[in-house]
Amino acid sequence: MSELLIYQSKGEGELFIQQSAQQLTNRPKPEGDKVTVTLDEKETFQEIDGFGASFTDSAAYLIHQVLDMEQQAEVMTRLFDPSEGIGISVLRNPMGASDYARSIYSYNDRPDGEIDPELKHFSIAHDEEDIIPLLHKARKLNPEVKLFASPWSAPAWMKTSGSMKTGELKKEYYPAFAEYFARYIQAYREKGLDIYAVTPQNEPLYEPSHYPSMKMLAEAQAEFVRDYLKPAFVSHGLHTKILCYDHNWDRPDYPTTVLEQAMEQVDGVAWHWYGGKPSAQSEVFEKFPNKEVHFTEGSGGEWIPPFEQAFSNVMRTGIEILRNHSKSFILWNMALDEQNGPTVPGFGNSTCRGIVQVNQQTRELVYTLDYYALAHFSKIIRPGALRIASESSEEAIRSVAFVNKDASRAVVLFNDSEQEAAVSLKLQGAEIIAFPMPAKSALSIRIPAGH
Description:
Layout: E1 5-9, E2 17-19, H1 21-25, E3 35-47, E4 50-54, H2 57-66, H3 69-80, E5 90-94, H4 125-129, H5 131-141, E6 146-150, H6 174-190, E7 197-198, H7 218-236, E8 241-248, H8 253-261, E9 268-272, H9 279-287, E10 292-297, E11 300-301, H10 307-323, E12 328-333, E13 335-336, E14 352-353, E15 356-358, E16 365-367, H11 369-378, E17 386-392, E18 397-403, E19 409-415, E20 421-427, E21 430-437, E22 442-447
Parallel strand pairs: 3-20, 4-5, 4-12, 5-6, 6-7, 7-8, 8-9, 9-10, 13-15
Antiparallel strand pairs: 1-2, 1-22, 3-17, 11-14, 15-16, 17-18, 18-19, 19-22, 20-21
């Protein structure tokens, strides 16, 4: 029993604390029926790519420029190192500026009235200052890190608005925008960084006017991917995956339309959590079982202010995201400052929360609840893990389970009730461990092979 690797979170100040099996089981057991969580290795689902967040311009600047070298080494180790840290293994970065950037920029900005359809002025120089150095450090700490990328907007000259804010992609620039993606992937490859997957547009149904955005309806996205983006990848010999949609659970009709119209050119669907329910992932997956499911953005923030509710939200939702076929679970900003920024000029009040907080005034470094919630997944569920069936005799005890490539089993549990529960974890009919779970507590257990 001592071989089990166990981490428990019971509330603020008691986050992701390593426990021995004896420490866990020696506590007084609550009265009442025991809740049984049963694992079934015969029933398998998706393979995991990983867990992570985003090196937005803001996050990369804070870690690379505001922190001193010792702090930077500490935070990168605690984020990416699988042994000394939590082993983050997926990064989803904006292609150009997002809402969390110090300025509005693309990789092909031109003066007003000037166009560049041949992309003669294309450059990723902006990313060479902070983002690319941190990506190399992340990869050195964890060679399994995969890179995803998404634009918040095409360059302004390609759009109906003539601005990085609002507007749609002009039809005559579909070829240029497809080439823009290819150039980005090639430029990163020249820096020793492979882009694993892209989406054509971040949140294509949301068109805010206070930060970079671009409306792209489902039919337009299907045409762009089918007739321009995928052909550009083929012509350049690029094998980067294309994921459609990249928006909320409340519009499963959007990825359904894209997949119906561009089936062969799309590898999967990317989802966000700001509307709808995780079951939308399964709804689309059941129609298109050969297409991958990815969760590419979810931010915590002040709209769920009390600590317990906010931590519970990440745990509960993360488990449900994985139970609904997702190969990844990616939160939003890797780092934000004490004002939840920096944000683009004119953005207004930011309420998002980073994985870590970097205070620009004091240089204090704080690991937020999102760091510890993400740790419950990323520390024990490693890239390449295969999800197996897990069923609880009580709905309030949420669970998700995997078999890692080293044959260890990884189980994440969350007690979503207001009462302590006595839990028994069973595998192939035999009890592995029995323990009490306080209300709203999380538990991650790694069971070694052969146990």
